[in-house]
């Protein structure tokens, strides 16, 4: 454990950020799984709804700096290719 006051504060802040980043990443992964499940079910209405939610969550994660913007673009592109292959 750190002795310096500012370092103790850093430890607390880093933990808060880690928890928030984990929550954002988990939410993003969940909506991506929903898109894949909708594609497997071949339900066009559900696919579009899930894709819209997934793209939104991926963009939020990139905006918050949880994932890199190129990684966000890659994830969105792969999902859109997956959806296009079904339709």
Detailed description of the structure:
The protein is mostly helical. It has a single domain, classed as Methane Monooxygenase Hydroxylase, Chain G, domain 1, CATH 1.20.58.110. It has helices spanning 5-41, 44-63, 69-86. It is elongated, with a radius of gyration of 17 Å. The termini are far apart. The relative contact order is 0.13.
Descriptive key words:
Methane Monooxygenase Hydroxylase, Chain G, domain 1, mainly alpha, 87 residues, 0% strand
Topology diagram in text:
Elements: H1 5-41, H2 44-63, H3 69-86
Shape: elongated
CATH architecture: Up-down Bundle
Radius of gyration: 17 Å
N-to-C CA distance: 56 Å
Q: CATH class, anyone?
A: Mainly Alpha
**Global structural class:** mainly alpha
Whole-number average pLDDT? 95
* Major sheet size, sense and barrel closure: none
Unreliable stretches (pLDDT < 50, length at least 5) are none
**Number of domain modules:** 1
Number of helices: 3
What is the CATH superfamily?
Ribosomal protein S20
Helix-strand string: HHH
> What fold name goes in the CATH topology slot?
Methane Monooxygenase Hydroxylase, Chain G, domain 1
Helix content: over 70%
- Proportion of residues in extended strands: under 5%
Please count the beta strands (DSSP E, at least 2 residues each): 0
How would you summarize what this structure contains?
The protein has 87 residues and is mainly α. Helices cover 86% and strands 0% of the residues. The radius of gyration is 17 Å and the shape is elongated.
């Amino acid at each position: 454990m750190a002795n310096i006051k500012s370092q103790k504060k850093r430890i607390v802040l880093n933990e808060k950020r880690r928890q928030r980043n984990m929550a954002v990443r988990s939410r993003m992964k969940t909506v991506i799984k929903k898109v894949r499940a909708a594609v497997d079910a071949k339900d066009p209405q559900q696919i579009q709804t899930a894709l819209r939610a997934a793209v939104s969550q991926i963009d939020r994660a990139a905006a918050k700096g949880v994932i890199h913007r190129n990684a966000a673009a890659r994830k969105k592109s792969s999902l859109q290719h997956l959806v296009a292959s079904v339709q």
